[in-house]
Write a structure and sequence with these properties.
Layout lengths: L6 H29 L4 E3 L2 E3 L3 E5 L1 E2 L4 E4 L2 E5 L2 E5 L2 E8 L6 E7 L4 E3 L2 E2 L7 E3 L6 E5 L5 E6 L9 E6 L14 E5 L10 E4 L5 E6 L2 E6 L16 H20 L4 H9 L1 E6 L5 E6 L3 E2 L19 E2 L3 E6 L4 E7 L39 H12 L8 E2 L5 E6 L2 E6 L6 E4 L8 E3 L5 E6 L8 E6 L2
Parallel strand pairs: 3-10, 4-11
Antiparallel strand pairs: 1-2, 3-7, 5-6, 5-8, 8-9, 12-32, 13-14, 14-15, 15-16, 17-18, 18-19, 20-21, 21-24, 22-23, 24-25, 26-27, 27-28, 28-29, 30-31, 31-32
Length: 454
């Protein structure tokens, strides 16, 4: 007859089962914590808790220094104890990048360091002299006047599609003449306004007004004068600009819209429409916690108390506001005017119901009208700061030097300190170059040059 299991046997199995469960649970817990970055061995030794630093740079292959100590090269990841570190990224031939970054527990902090060449090359883009250079609203094209071409028929207005120019300037598609001087039309002193879709330009002079397509050459002598309907055309363009601005502003918190429309001037959206560059005109305070904070957001010191005359950048995704400069010598003849100041209304205004609402940029003089429209599209005309195409940097001129910095005011870098005219410094659409006008000889006219950044 078989014996029944003794109580000690059952107790032994129970203990074994409990121990196995404890070991499995503990192992799973450790595995989860390890996956989150805990219980790591990093550069500071064994860390019960850690965060991850993604040290990336453009270009790659740069040296990464943490608190002054060379640790690794970009692009790489490093487990660090959660706290603040001074991160410096250096590469031969490029300006160094440095920032104080906060590494948070179980989160990834990225450097996203953009390195700019310390001795960039300069390449001529035109050779026959240029004046009246006007960039398009989409930043992809330029229109300019040539006065000293090899033949009379080549004197006139030209359009240049920047997006069509590849890595080698010599392989570019090239500028195309959109019109030559007419018998009575004075192109040399004409004022130019782009259409909002960047497909046409209105050319205004004392001898008449015309609208030209930039994809073809037009004979001025056969082009009808649109002076009788110029006001209507400009109003229609302004309405199109208003509708787009209304869409962009509608993505920002109401508190920021109120500041932009009541306590600020020269408001410019970043190319990705996630950040806003503006100059305060009155004291104001941005409330805290407008939107939920994002993990591993920008840890640089922000300023929510606004001071008149200071320039700021507001990031709507991270709800952070950075003071980046003090307003200096701007173009007093123009201030960017916001058009969509009626976001409280459910429906946008239409020109048919309120024609006068779309005459805010029109002035009695054509030159001022052109300045108002052009300054709306680009801060180039206000002699203040410009957005760089990556939406992460701000371009500006200071002390006769072209400089760039991160949108939070850090890493101010001098890109170029040679000769150039302060009236025209403009970024290439993909951020690979800068455009300037300059001359390297007293006997030569101004020409367009590119400063290579990549």
């Amino acid at each position: 007859m078989a014996k029944s299991p003794t109580p000690s046997f059952f107790n032994s199995r129970l203990v074994t089962t409990l121990l196995s469960a404890v070991v499995i649970t503990a192992g799973a817990l450790v595995a989860i914590l390890y996956a989150k970055g805990n219980f790591r061995y990093g550069n500071t030794g064994f860390m019960p808790k850690s965060g991850l630093l993604n040290a990336n740079s453009f270009p790659t292959g740069a040296e990464v220094y943490i608190d002054g100590r060379l640790v690794t090269a970009t692009d790489g990841t490093i487990y660090l104890e959660p706290k603040e570190y001074t991160i410096r990224i250096s590469k031969d031939g490029y300006s160094s990048w440095e920032k104080r970054l906060k590494v948070e527990e179980e989160l990834v902090t990225q450097t996203n360091a953009q390195l700019f060449p310390s001795a960039p090359s300069i390449t001529p883009l035109t050779f026959t002299g240029v004046s009246s250079v006007v960039p398009s609203p989409d930043g992809q094209k330029l229109v300019y006047y040539v006065a000293s071409a090899s033949s009379q028929t080549k004197i006139g207005l030209y359009a240049l599609d920047l997006a069509s120019i590849g890595g080698l300037i010599g392989m570019q598609k090239g500028p195309r003449q959109i019109t030559e001087n007419g018998q009575v039309f004075d192109l040399a002193n004409a004022d130019i306004v782009w259409s909002p879709d960047s497909s046409e330009v209105m050319v205004m002079s004392q001898n008449g007004d015309v609208v030209l397509g930039i994809d073809r050459k037009t004979d001025l002598n056969k082009t009808p004068d649109i002076g009788w309907k110029k006001k209507r055309i400009l109003a229609e363009w302004e309405q199109e600009m208003y509708v787009r601005e209304r869409e962009f502003m509608g993505k920002f918190p109401p508190e920021i819209v109120a500041i932009a429309t009541q306590s600020a001037k020269n408001v410019y959206f970043s190319p990705d429409k996630k950040r806003m560059l503006y100059t305060a005109t009155a004291s104001a305070e941005i409330p805290k916690g407008i939107t939920p904070s994002l993990p591993a957001s920008n840890s640089q010191t922000e300023t929510r108390l606004l001071t008149p005359g200071r320039i700021y950048v507001y990031d709507r995704e991270e709800d952070r506001n950075f003071e980046i400069a003090t307003e200096t010598q701007t173009n007093q003849a123009v201030t960017k005017v916001l058009l969509a100041t009626d976001l409280s209304e459910s429906q946008p205004i239409r020109i048919e119901s309120s024609p006068s609402a779309f005459e805010r940029l029109q002035a009695s003089e054509s030159a001022q009208t052109a300045l108002n429209f052009n300054a709306y599209h680009s801060s180039l005309y206000i002699n203040t700061m410009q957005w760089f195409p990556d939406s992460k940097h701000i371009l500006f001129v200071r002390d006769n030097k072209i400089q760039i910095m991160a949108y939070d005011g850090t890493n101010v870098t001098t890109i170029y300190s040679g000769p150039f005219t302060n009236s025209f410094v403009y970024p290439w659409p993909d951020g690979s170059r800068l455009l300037i006008t300059t001359t390297f000889s007293p006997d030569s006219p101004l020409n367009l040059y590119t400063i290579e950044l990549k």
